[in-house]
Design a protein that fits this description.
alpha/beta, Rossmann fold, Histone, subunit A, 2 domains, 6-stranded parallel beta sheet, 13 helices, 9% strand, globular, IPT, tRNA processing, magnesium, transferase
């Protein structure tokens, strides 16, 4: 049983490759993009189009609401159950997504952290409201610079999680990572797509412009009543909330979406480059080259 995991920075072409590989291996696709779970968020998350969804069987796309409390632990459990079912009829399953923590939860298992006093999280949430995210980021950088440089630092939930472990345990959050991992009864091959940084950034800028043309602003308008939800505290939505709330101009909001997405892509690459076993390909590599290499590996792995 083999899981082919496709990773890489946002806007690099992971979705297109996943569909080609799914068709080649006659396999289903599991999404490990934590933003594409939510049915209310379609344009701003670059979720697969109706045509793409029809081209291969997808799982974990728009299966939750932004009002649902869904986290990486629940995702790990759900995907393992799904894989157990899928592997009964096919030896290969494709997984695709840029959410490194969610990818690792499936392929390696989640790290175990100590229990900490709930009052610490309450205090950090209060500090987020009163002093802002930058204050918490600086605090994490002081307590655990390794975590500061590897987690999704623009995500308040991730920052608070790392800080509460640091403060509650007296040890760096990063010291609990990769200690004891769950064994998987399937093998994983990770395929990474990449490009020169200038190309990645240009593709991101183009994608944001396309999203705006597709109606991202209208999508965000419909979500205004829910803007305080954690699921919507994410790039592409929070910037346009600022515009709609009269805090920013539209041009500035769009430029901030591009800037924050570029920053996110940089952190994605940092995360995925940690896995030295990943097979990296240029984003323009012909799919036949990738399938030929995978075919050689899968022939060995599955026999």
């Amino acid at each position: 049983m083999l899981l082919i995991s496709i990773v890489g920075p946002t806007a690099i072409g992971k979705t297109a490759l996943s569909i080609k590989l799914a068709q080649y291996f006659n396999a289903d696709i599991i999404s490990a993009d934590s933003r594409q779970f939510f049915k209310e968020m379609q344009i701003g998350t670059a979720a697969p189009s109706a045509e793409e969804l029809a081209a291969a069987k997808h799982h974990f796309i728009h299966h939750k609401s932004i009002q649902d409390n869904y986290n990486v632990g629940a995702f790990e459990k759900d995907v393992l159950q799904c894989l157990n079912t899928l592997f009964k009829t096919n030896n290969v399953v494709i997984m695709v997504g840029g959410s490194g923590l969610y990818v690792d939860a499936v392929t390696k298992g989640l790290d175990e952290f100590p229990e900490v006093d709930k009052s610490i999280r309450e205090q950090l949430n209060n500090e987020l409201q009163s002093k802002g995210l930058k204050h918490l980021q600086n605090q994490l950088n002081t307590l655990d610079s390794k975590a500061y440089n590897t987690i999704a630092i623009d995500n308040p939930h991730r920052v608070i999680r790392a800080l509460e472990i640091c403060l509650g345990s007296g040890k760096p959050y990063s010291s609990f990572l990769n200690q004891g991992k769950s064994k998987r009864d399937f093998k994983t091959i990770t395929v990474g797509l990449t490009a020169e940084r200038e190309i990645i950034y240009d593709r991101i800028n183009q994608r944001v412009d396309i999203m705006m043309e597709q109606g991202l602003l209208n999508e965000v308008k419909t979500l205004m009543p829910y803007q305080s939800l954690n699921a919507l505290n994410t790039v592409g939505y929070k910037e346009l909330f600022n515009y709609l709330n009269g805090e920013w101009t539209l041009d500035f909001a769009i430029s901030e979406i591009k800037k924050h997405t570029r920053r996110f892509a940089k952190r994605q690459l940092t995360w995925f480059k940690k896995d030295e076993s990943t097979l990296w390909f240029d984003y323009e590599t012909n799919v036949n080259v990738i399938t030929n290499e995978l075919k050689q590996i899968t022939t060995t792995e599955l026999h």
